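tool_call: predict_structure(chain=1)
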Amino acid sequence: ARVAAALQEYLDVYPDGEFVASVRGYQADLAVTQREWERAVALTLDQLNGTRSPELDEDAALRFARILEALTDEVTRADVIEVLRKHAAAPPLVKLALDLEDPNNPLLYLREFLNSALLEAHGARALATPATAAAGRNAASLERRARSR
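tool_result:
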């Protein structure tokens, strides 16, 4: 709670500060750790859409991969799917992750399920949102993350 308060205090004091994007990234990391999926997904997608920093883009892509890893846990899967359905920018990113043909991709065994539960529910808006431009730049990051598992 103290860390979250300190991060928010920085944003309150310096709303246009030099480190706002980094602080929002820290908030998103904290949300993932605390399994606050709505906040984690919203902040991560905002970062993917708004940052001009390759380092922060990669951080957001890796964080999104961590969020997707929660889909492999049957305890968190339903909550994460529900949150991802709420964000129009999420399904194309999930599609990118599902399309990785890496045998170590932790989502491979969930491909059919996620296609029906998430992508088809959104009309399979394949790669049609602004977030996919950032996701395209970060597909290599997601692939490296999948390989490192």
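agent: The mean pLDDT is 82. Proceeding to next step.
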